[in-house]
Each structure stands twice: as structure tokens, then as C-alpha cells.
């Protein structure tokens, strides 16, 4: 099948590459010439494990192409995927101007009947609107079918998820179109759930909102655990063994970040508001998530009378491991606070430092490894649970720091193991370890 994907952000590039891997001929369109040149040589503009290799292979096997030219990209194509961004507007709603422009570009260039598949996360009703935008602007007399096909890929695990997802949602108002999209996806071997367009659009928001709710829920439980002397890890484990609850997404910490949950939860509150429904629960989820970073900072401020002149080692900047993405990362708010308090911040992240420099306070000092960050530090904060940090010998903190006080925002270490070292260890929702030799 000849497929074109418009937009080579994280969703578009992963989708295009994986569709080529299962045998389709895929052209990816992007307006950025430099980016297109880079991708043609098999270099991914984003950090995503396994993506470069897969791109190179399919470029070599002549199934994956990149262009800035819409005419060339849409020529003779049977299926077009829209995967451009829907950034958040100031009021929390989704900005659909990029999607609208793609609709107009499609209308101006397609010369045969096409199925337009929306991958971008768009509010309920948007697919019907895109269809109208295309039909209103069509230059040639062709038939356009529209299909909503939301993505459920996690950054950092997107290639794995593409081949091992739980389901593929296909929303269409035309059975033929739905069947053809099902056929395209068959080689992935993932069950396809077919439904109507508006339900498919809603599934994406509801799924992300529910996952965000699980996180805020366990974070509140974690805050209570701290006060009543329980251990949130044990609580999550005991809860998660109930199949109705499930064990995933119950890791307490400093809240969710990234390009999806913060944006999609706010957008869903907005979608509900537009039909005069007050989504109170989801508003609470968003509020709790914001508060979670403050909780770590409050603990730190309680522990140290002043942070003025103190060396703070920050381990991890990305919003989660295995990505260089800094969007809505907890580290942005936390490092800003540390700088305001006069701390001397030494930060290290295995891959996100270049992106961090664009969004984090310029007074943060970047170092090239964990030991350098910890050297003579008064306190260490762990903000992203990279394996590199999880695998650290606790002795490394003791050997390098001036005072081995650790605030672990991601529960990387087992307190039982930490007890064997001369460190003071505070984590989220678990009893602190205070080694008497330190005090
Ligand atoms: C999320 C969803 O998991 C994907 O299914 C969805 O396709 C994607 O959004 C999207 O809408 O495009 P992603 O944002 O890449 O994927 O990352 P997640 O792995 O879901 O993590 C999101 C945030 O939640 C991270 O900051 C992570 O640290 C946090 N999190 C996750 C927790 O704090 N606790 C958990 O138990 C799980």
C-alpha cells in the first residue's frame, strides 16, 4: 500500500517508519528542509531507542522516503496519515491550525480517492470538521473518507509499543474505509477495535485521562502513607494484584509530565466544559499533579534551613527515562525553585541536557556524569528514574557527597538496602532512612 504521513514529529516519524517496516511504501512530509535532509540519511531528529536503525533499514530497502514537497508526497497515494501537532492554547484547548493546513494541502493535491487517517490527538468532532475542510477545498473530483486512528505509543518505548500494543482503535463512518485501515495494520498482529469516529476520538482522551488519574491517585495515597507510616510501594503492589485495578501506572513520584498527559487532561476538561459539563474529577487530577513537585520541595526546605550556597546535585532532567524530551518535566519547576533559593545546582541527565539548556534556568550548571554532580554536594535530588541512576551503588553518594542527603523523587532505591550505608534517604510515600552516624 502507498501511504503518506504528514508531520514527522514523534508520532508521525514512528508511525511512518513502522508502517514501512511491515511492508508499505511510505513517504513522510515535513515542512522543515534541514530535518528532511537529516531523516533521508537515516538520522532521527528525536531520541527514540531503535528508531534510527529501523529508519536506515527501510530507507535502504526503498520503502521509506522523506520530502518537503506536498505535490510529490500526495501523488498517487491511497492513504494519508495526519500526524501534525495539536499544541495547547492558552485556555487549555487544542490548537488545530496545523491540522487545518494539512486538510487544505490534501485538498489542493490529491488526484484520486483517498482515506485520510488522523493520528494527531484531536477533540471530539474534529474529524468531521477536517472532512468538511478537505471537501470544501478539493481541486479534483475525488472521494475522501476519514478515519480516526489514535496512537497509544509511549515515548522511549514507541517502537516496542508499535509492534506490541494492546489494541489499534479505528474509528470510521464507512465500513470499507475501516476495513482497509484494518488490513494495512494486519502485519502488526495487534487486535483492531472498530468503532465510530467520535468514540475513537474520545477513547484517546479518556485513556490518557484515566492513566493520569491513576498516577494522581497513587500520589495522593503516597502523601497519606507518609503521614500514617505506611509504604506506598507495598500498598500499590497489594492493590495492583487485583486484576480490576491492575499493577501498572501506580508508581508514586513527583507527578506526570511530557507532551501528552498534561495537554490532553486540560483539553478534556475544556471539551467537557464546551458542552457545559464540569469534569471535577479530572480537574482534581491536574491539581494534584501540580502539587506533587511542591511536596518534594517542601520536604527539602524543611530539612535545610536555607539552600543559599548549598551544592545541590540534580540527577535526571527528562520528564521520564529513555527520552530527551523536556516538555512539562518536573525538573523545570524544581530547578527554578532551587536557583531562586540561592542553591548552586549541578545537573546531569544521560540524554536530555541539550534540550534542558533551552528550557531550564540558565544558572544551572551542567556536568558530564553522576560522580561530577555528586562531588562535594550537600544534597542530591533524583528527578528521573534512568537505569543509570537506579543501578548506582549507594556507596557512590557516600563517597562523593559532602553530606549524603538524598531526596529521591522517583523511588529508585530499596530503603532496606539504603539502610546499610551512611546516607540520609527520603523518597516518596515510604519511610525515610536516617542513618544515625550522619546526624
Ligand atoms: C503517554 C501514554 O502512556 C501513551 O499511551 C500515549 O500514547 C501517549 O501518552 C500520548 O498520548 O502520545 P508518554 O507521555 O510517552 O505516553 O509517557 P508515559 O510512559 O505514559 O509517562 C507519562 C508520565 O507519567 C511520565 O512523566 C512518567 O514519569 C509518569 N508516570 C507514569 C508516573 O509518574 N507514574 C507511573 O506509574 C507511570
Automatic annotation (TrEMBL):
Its annotated function is as follows: Catalyzes the conversion of UDP-glucose into UDP-glucuronate, one of the precursors of teichuronic acid.
For the keyword Oxidoreductase, the answer is: yes
Q: What is its EC number?
A: 1.1.1.22
Family that this chain belongs to? Belongs to the UDP-glucose/GDP-mannose dehydrogenase family.
Question: Its annotated pathway?
Answer: Nucleotide-sugar biosynthesis; UDP-alpha-D-glucuronate biosynthesis; UDP-alpha-D-glucuronate from UDP-alpha-D-glucose: step 1/1
Q: Give the matching SUPFAM superfamilies.
A: 6-phosphogluconate dehydrogenase C-terminal domain-like (SSF48179), NAD(P)-binding Rossmann-fold domains (SSF51735), UDP-glucose/GDP-mannose dehydrogenase C-terminal domain (SSF52413)
Q: Name one Pfam family in it.
A: UDPG_MGDP_dh
Gene3D superfamilies, per database record: Cytochrome c1, transmembrane anchor, C-terminal (1.20.5.100), NAD(P)-binding Rossmann-like Domain (3.40.50.720)
- Per UniProt, residues of the UDP-glucose/GDP-mannose dehydrogenase C-terminal domain are 313-415
Transmembrane ranges, per UniProt, are none
The protein in question is named UDP-glucose 6-dehydrogenase
Keyword annotations: NAD, Oxidoreductase
Q: Which GO terms describe its molecular function?
A: NAD binding; UDP-glucose 6-dehydrogenase activity
Entry annotation: catalytic residues: 260
UniProt record, GO biological process: polysaccharide biosynthetic process
Q: From what organism does this protein derive?
A: Metabacillus arenae
Q: Which residues bind NAD(+)?
A: 30, 35, 86, 121, 155, 263, 327
Q: Which reaction does it catalyse?
A: UDP-alpha-D-glucose + 2 NAD(+) + H2O = UDP-alpha-D-glucuronate + 2 NADH + 3 H(+)
User: Which residues take part in binding substrate?
Assistant: 152-155, 204, 249-253, 257, 320
Question: Which superkingdom does the taxonomy of this entry point to?
Answer: Bacteria
Amino acid at each position: 500500500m502507498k501511504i503518506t504521513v504528514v508531520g514527522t514529529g514523534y508520532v508521525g516519524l514512528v508511525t511512518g517508519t513502522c508502517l514501512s517496516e511491515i511492508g508499505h511504501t511510505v513517504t513522510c512530509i515535513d515542512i522543515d528542509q534541514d530535518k528532511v535532509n537529516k531523516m533521508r540519511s537515516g538520522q532521527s531528529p528525536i531520541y527514540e531507542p531503535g528508531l534510527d536503525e529501523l529508519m536506515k533499514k527501510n530507507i535502504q530497502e526503498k520503502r521509506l522516503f522523506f520530502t518537503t514537497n506536498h505535490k510529490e508526497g500526495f501523488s498517487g497515494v491511497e492513504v494519508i496519515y495526519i500526524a501534525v501537532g495539536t499544541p495547547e492554547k492558552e485556555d487549555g484547548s487544542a490548537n488545530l491550525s496545523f491540522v487545518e493546513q494539512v486538510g487544505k494541502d490534501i485538498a489542493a493535491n490529491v488526484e484520486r480517492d483517498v482515506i485520510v487517517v488522523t493520528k494527531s490527538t484531536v477533540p471530539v468532532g474534529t474529524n468531521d470538521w477536517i472532512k468538511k475542510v478537505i471537501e470544501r477545498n478539493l481541486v479534483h473530483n475525488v472521494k475522501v473518507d476519514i478515519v480516526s486512528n489514535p496512537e497509544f505509543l509511549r515515548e522511549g518505548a514507541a517502537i516496542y509499543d508499535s509492534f506490541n500494543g494492546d489494541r489499534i482503535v479505528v474509528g470510521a463512518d464507512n465500513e470499507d474505509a475501516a476495513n482497509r485501515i484494518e488490513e494495512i495494520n494486519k502485519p502488526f498482529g495487534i487486535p483492531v477495535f472498530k468503532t465510530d469516529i467520535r468514540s475513537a476520538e474520545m477513547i484517546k482522551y479518556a485513556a490518557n485521562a484515566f492513566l493520569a488519574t491513576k498516577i494522581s491517585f497513587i500520589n495522593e495515597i503516597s502523601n497519606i502513607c507518609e503521614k500514617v507510616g505506611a509504604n506506598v510501594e507495598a500498598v500499590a503492589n497489594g492493590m495492583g494484584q487485583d486484576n480490576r485495578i491492575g499493577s501498572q501506572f501506580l508508581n508514586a513520584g513527583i507527578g506526570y509530565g511530557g507532551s501528552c498527559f498534561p495537554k490532553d487532561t486540560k483539553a478534556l476538561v475544556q471539551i467537557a466544559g464546551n458542552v457545559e459539563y464540569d469534569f471535577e474529577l479530572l480537574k482534581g487530577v491536574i491539581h494534584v499533579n501540580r502539587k506533587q513537585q511542591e511536596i518534594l520541595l517542601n520536604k527539602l526546605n524543611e530539612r535545610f534551613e536555607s539552600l543559599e550556597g548549598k551544592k545541590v546535585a540534580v540527577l535526571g532532567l527528562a520528564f521520564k527515562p529513555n527520552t530527551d524530551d523536556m516538555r512539562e518535566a518536573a525538573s523545570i519547576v524544581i530547578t527554578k525553585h532551587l536557583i531562586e533559593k540561592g542553591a548552586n545546582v549541578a545537573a546531569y541527565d544521560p540524554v536530555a541536557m541539550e534540550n534542558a539548556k533551552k528550557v531550564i534556568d540558565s544558572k544551572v550548571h551542567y556536568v558530564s556524569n553522576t560522580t561530577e554532580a555528586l562531588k562535594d554536594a550537600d544534597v542530591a535530588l533524583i528527578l528521573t528514574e534512568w537505569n543509570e541512576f537506579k543501578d548506582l551503588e549507594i556507596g557512590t553518594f557516600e563517597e562523593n557527597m559532602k553530606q549524603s542527603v538524598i531526596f529521591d523523587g522517583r523511588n529508585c532505591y530499596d530503603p532496606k538496602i539504603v539502610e546499610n550505608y551512611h546516607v540520609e534517604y527520603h523518597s516518596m510515600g515510604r519511610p525515610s532512612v536516617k542513618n544515625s552516624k550522619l546526624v
